[in-house]
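Methods — Computational structure assignment.
A single polypeptide chain was analysed. Its primary sequence is given first, followed by the predicted tertiary structure written as structure tokens.
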Amino acid sequence: LIFYLTLFFLLMAFVVYLQSPFSHIEDIVVLNNKALSDDTVIQASDISLNENIWMLNRKGTVKRIQNHPVIESVKVKRKLPNTVEINVVEKEIIGFLKEESKYHPVIKDGMIVKKSGIPYKGNYPLLKDFKDDAFLKHMAQELNELPNDLFNLISEITWNPTDKNKYKIELYMNDGFIVQSTMRDFADKMKSYPSI
């Protein structure tokens, strides 16, 4: 009798818990996001506060977040009593493309992300006058191969093609220098920049 009564009250307590605010999501924590804001990731997840933590569809949430073009992968887990943890891995952003008065992030494969929710803050190179996707892709690949210390020195890159050299670029560096170069083997050539 004691065993059955205990089981009954435990089941009742569990049902009451599920119906009470104690089982509702009170906090959503986003980890490892660098370019994307917490709000952007949470909005993409479509998770809302006061939703029952046990009714959370983790697979569906992961799928929704991965639809964002800057997200590489994501893990969603419950942290009891009432926190949801979203751990994201972002695609590498190599710069921002300026189109008229708008700034769009460019990821390492050269894809331009038009609706990213990422504001330009000057912490990535500004890519100007890249009007051909093939050359933008080439530039993105070269920038992706640069060491971080050199990458962080670049403020702006302008594509200045000529009849003789379609790969000509001009760089404005954060240390005040202007560099004229070519996209061909750009990453290898720039390794000598600090010594020059």
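Note: The longest strand covers residues 71-79.
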